[in-house]
Specification:
104 residues, 90% helix, rod-shaped
């Protein structure tokens, strides 16, 4: 009877370890998906701003308007890049907070 109890406990413990491993794998996959989405959004936004700048350069004849427009786009791009940098550091902090310690 004692052997059955030991095997039952072993099986339960093993099942818990497997469940934790699967949860960790799913969490890692979600983090990877989120990181990839952020990279895609960042790249797409940069391309949009570059395209907009090129369109302004080629289509607007008034130099004053062209210059003001390009300054505005540059300002938007700088703010976007600052937001991305800040978001990356916050994202890393959140990931580190959610990581279990070795003792868990």
């Amino acid at each position: 009877m004692e052997d059955k109890s030991k095997w039952s406990k072993f099986t339960d413990d093993l099942s818990k370890v497997v469940d934790k491993f699967q949860d960790k794998m799913e969490e890692d996959k979600l983090v990877e998906d989120l990181q990839e989405s952020i990279r895609d959004i960042t790249e797409n936004t940069k391309n949009i701003l570059k395209s907009l700048s090129e369109s302004i350069e080629s289509s607007i004849k008034d130099e004053k308007i062209k210059s003001a427009s390009k300054e505005l786009i540059s300002s938007i791009q700088e703010e976007f890049e600052l937001t991305i940098r800040n978001s990356k550091s916050k994202f890393k902090e959140l990931i580190n907070l959610s990581q279990p310690t070795e003792e868990e």
